[in-house]
Each structure stands twice: as structure tokens, then as C-alpha cells.
Amino acid sequence: MTQVIPQGFSKGHGTGNDFVLVADADGSAPLTPERVRALADRRFGVGGDGVIRAVRAGATGVAILDSAAEGTWAMDYWNADGSVSEMCGNGVRVFVRYLLEAGLEELPDGGAIDVATRAGVKRVVRRGELLSVDLGPFELGEMALVAADGLEVDRPGLLVSTGNPHVVVALASEDELAGLDLHRAPSLDPAPVDGANVEFVVPGAIADGIGSIRMRVHERGVGETLSCGTGAVAAAMATRHWSGDAADRWIVDVPGGRLEVDVDERGHAWLTGPAEIVFRGETLSPAR
Length: 288
Ligand SMILES: N[C@@H](CCC[C@H](N)C(=O)O)C(=O)O
What we know:
The chain has 4 helices and 18 strands.
């Protein structure tokens, strides 16, 4: 008989970028690609763009914990296809909301909590109902040619690292953005060795030091999603660069809602937005 091990989970999202979250404080239940794919499956599982395991630093020898102080919470982030990513900007904010909802941490308004990730330790700050994360310094890189269904000609894209890899492409109009078909992954030339998330942006006006953009994204290891936090940061920082650094605050409208990106005096990019837990449950499918 197949052994069934019930496992508790929570489901949360940040602007529609949704995640299955599981607690494994002592590190005794590592995720596998098969388990992640099963949990993230929208028909046969819970469904999500990614799966996140909450582990305590010091509990296991997992590499993401190496730089973190003992006891720090670590976000073990996986994409829906069973691959791991260095960083997830919406995921780390939803992760902290999960710790608060589960009673594992407390965070007064204005308070901060550090989270270990594969891209280093990130600070998350509560701002009323919103959560902000300091994603640290970002890096602008080389150009790549981007081809996507719905675009008649290939477009130049700018490589941006926010801990994980992105390519940002500027489009001319909202119609062009709406006309994209992101069912297939855009192709990149040259193709980054580890792949990349691809953001398509339409820049808006800059007024009173605040820029605005509309964005759609094809996430590495997932497909088109309603939002991508590190993608919003990459898109804002590429657009800021193209504008001659004309603004340090950017409003990023994605299909799932609105995010804000701010650059502080140290050149760190902060991502702010909503993060919600929408349900809890128990999986009953066979352990894999
Ligand atoms: N949705 C995330 C990014 C998740 C990881 C990404 N798909 C990758 O492979 O790098 C975000 O909010 O940043």
C-alpha cells in the first residue's frame, strides 16, 4: 500500500505571484524537484508559481544557510518546474507574511526581519500592511537580442542582476505589450548560461521624481506570471538607466497589481508591495 504522509501547507501571493509554503524548521524534510512539481501543479496539486520551504539556519548544511546567523529563517525557493532560484522578491515578502501568520515571528510596524536566501541575507521591513525587501545593489550587464511571439522584429534587451538573472526589453506602446504571446519562452541571443527571466516594459511619464512603467514577465522555470518582484526591480532599474537616472522611485504596474521600487542612498533597490496568505491546508498525496 502507498504510504500517505499528510503535510501542512499555506498558500500565499504577492500581486498574484503565488506560492505554496511549507515549514521545516529543523530541516528534516528537504524538497525534491518531484515534490515541488507535484505541489505547484494547478490541476493535480495545490498550484503555484513556486514552492517555498521555511528552514532555520543551523538546522541543516544547505548552502543557502552558510552566511546566516544561527536561528535566522532561510527561504528555500523553488520554481514550479522543480528548479531552484537564487532569489524571489515577491516570495521573500510572502515568506515573512507566512512567518507572521503562523505565529513563528512578530513584526511591529517599521520593524525588520532578516531572511537568508541563496542570494545572501535580505532584510524585510513592515510598512503598515505592506512588506518591503532590501534586494541590495543591482547590476546592469550586457545587451541580448530578444525574440518573442507577437513581436515582429527582435528587440534589444538589457541584462540586469537582482540576485537572479533578468533581461529587460522596452516596448513602444501598451498595444505592443498587450499583443505579446508569452506562452512560449522568449529566446535570447546570446542566451545566458543559467537562463533568465524576461521583462517587457512600457515606460510612462516621470513626474515629481517618480517614474512609472507597465510590465509583463516570462519567468524562468515557470512561464508568464501575474507579477515578479525581482523582475519589477530589474525593469525599474533598466528604465531608470535609460532615463539617465531621472528618478529613484518607480511605480511598476503588473497584471496582478502594483509594486513600488525605490533606490536608497547606498544604491540598494527596495521592493514594496502587498503580501497575503490566502489559505492553509494539508496535502494527502503520496510522499515522493
Ligand atoms: N517571482 C519571483 C522570481 C522567482 C524566481 C525566478 N523565476 C527565477 O528563476 O529567477 C520574484 O518575485 O522575484
